[in-house]
């Protein structure tokens, strides 16, 4: 099978199910941003030191493919796609809770700095937030799986906590917003 089909040369592509849509439609923006997030998570994994987080993010990469597949298909095909489940969301919540117990409390805005894994986690967090905004934009026009939205929201929360944890385990200070600069 060839990697190129030439079907998209005129600015359209096919959803799962065959419907042709313009490449600039909200659905493609949503699952394209999920794909971008997945690539950034792959980059984060090259620097991550925490074994539980390496294992969880390896699962997350597969779950992001599930989410992208759900977003890439027509409504009548969603049930045939691999699902995003409450168990996926709960695994993220569980890891957030585990990490937060170890972190120092704070009441300031944190700047996206620190060790490489922390800054990469912040990049992933911001892409996850953009993916969430794209999915909500799509939801304003079409039906969207609620669990996908919950998963992406919880994933961005996890990535924020993970960025702090990366600095913490490498004994690197956190950088806080100074609104008096």
Task: Explain what you see.
The chain is mainly alpha-helical and 181 residues long. It has one domain: Cobalamin adenosyltransferase-like (Hypothetical Protein Ta1238, Chain: A, Up-down Bundle). It contains five helices and two strands. It has a two-stranded antiparallel ribbon with strand order 1-2. It is elongated and about 50 Å long. The N and C termini lie far apart (57 Å). The model has no long low-confidence stretch (mean pLDDT 89).
Summary, kept brief:
Helix content is 59%, strand content 3%. By secondary structure, it is mainly alpha-helical.
Outline the secondary-structure elements:
Layout: E1 12-14, E2 20-22, H1 26-45, H2 51-71, H3 86-102, H4 116-139, H5 146-169
Antiparallel strand pairs: 1-2
* End-to-end C-alpha gap: 57 Å
Quickly give the structural class: mainly alpha
CATH topology category name: Hypothetical Protein Ta1238, Chain: A
- Mean pLDDT over the full residue set: 89
Question: How do the strands of the widest beta sheet line up side by side?
Answer: 1-2
Please state the CA-atom Rg, rounded to the nearest Å. 18 Å
Which key phrases capture this entry?
Hypothetical Protein Ta1238, Chain: A, two-stranded antiparallel sheet, 2 strands, 59% helix
């Amino acid at each position: 099978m060839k990697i190129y089909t030439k079907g998209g040369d005129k600015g359209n592509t096919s959803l799962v199910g065959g419907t042709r849509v313009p490449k600039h439609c909200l659905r493609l923006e949503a699952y394209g941003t999920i794909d971008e997030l997945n690539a950034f998570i792959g980059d984060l994994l090259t620097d991550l030191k925490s074994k539980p987080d390496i294992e969880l993010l390896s699962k997350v990469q597969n779950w992001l493919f599930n989410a992208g597949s759900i977003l890439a298909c027509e409504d009548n095909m969603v049930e045939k796609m691999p699902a995003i489940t409450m168990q996926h969301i709960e695994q993220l919540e569980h890891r957030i809770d585990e990490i937060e117990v170890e972190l120092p409390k704070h009441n300031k805005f944190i700047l996206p700095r620190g060790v490489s894994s922390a800054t990469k986690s912040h990049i992933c967090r911001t892409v996850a937030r953009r993916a969430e905004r794209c999915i909500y934009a799509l939801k304003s026009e079409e039906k969207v799986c609620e669990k996908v939205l919950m998963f992406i929201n919880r994933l961005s929360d996890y990535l924020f906590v993970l960025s702090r944890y990366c600095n913490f385990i490498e004994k690197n200070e956190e950088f806080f917003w100074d609104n008096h600069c």
